[in-house]
Amino acid sequence: MKWLQLGLSANEYEIHATQSEATLCSNGITISNHDICAAGVVIHRRWRLSPPKPVIKLILDGDPGNFGQREWVAALDYTFWLWRRLSPKTLWANAPNVVQDRLILYRLAAECGLDVPDTAVATRYYQLPANVVAKPIAHNEHVHDGAYFPTTNLTSSARGSLLSARSPCPHLTQTVIQVKQELRVVYSFGLMGVVSLLRDTKAGPIDIRYDSSVRCFRSSIPTHVEAKLRAFAKLTNLAIFTADILIDSNEKYWLIDVTPSGTIGSLDDDRTTLVTCCVEGILKELNAPSI
Model-level pTM? Predict the structure, then answer.
């Protein structure tokens, strides 16, 4: 029997998870998906206190502390969810809920046949592969005072300092894709709108949301990619979402992010293709007149 306690200090945990396996360690106890699959029963229990204790104890206060908690919760939610998904014959007491976690959505997208870059979460930066970008784990990327954690290229010079600055939060990294074209797709109750995102310079930030040189044009996606996105919408029960897709030099379509809320922001063309698609889908669902 193995027992792993939550609610301890962050430095008492190590986590390492990919799209196919996850390991969690604390106080000399290590539990992996192999342990879960071999177990007869898994008891997933959170204590009931009012107010509930934090999942992980952090020395950070205020907004940075809230950011750290969200990152830990998202990493642990994914770990427990993946364990459950990989152990169909194991009896779970209080099985983890399916949440709209970035890592869970990556895994489900891959199950639908969409290509997703190799993704990993770890508490130790030496466990992470080279040639990657760093992202927040939770969808809420706010750190403090209006500052957000953007997708960041982990060059060899910035790797140690950036990941150390995020400590004691786990780190999410994703393999860099050599981009030929960038697309943003909106799915709204069965309708899809696509725009192509064109950068005027290659010197801008890797996170296209922060590149002021971007221009948007109406575009499209192949039928096989559209079919996989529809399968993803059905599997996740997401009626509205946005998907960011990269096309590489081999014409391979890579899903790099999904936003369940369907956030569009400023990345839309002059004809408001994405906004119009989103609204049209909602009106169609409500049997209301089109705009």
Answer: 0.86
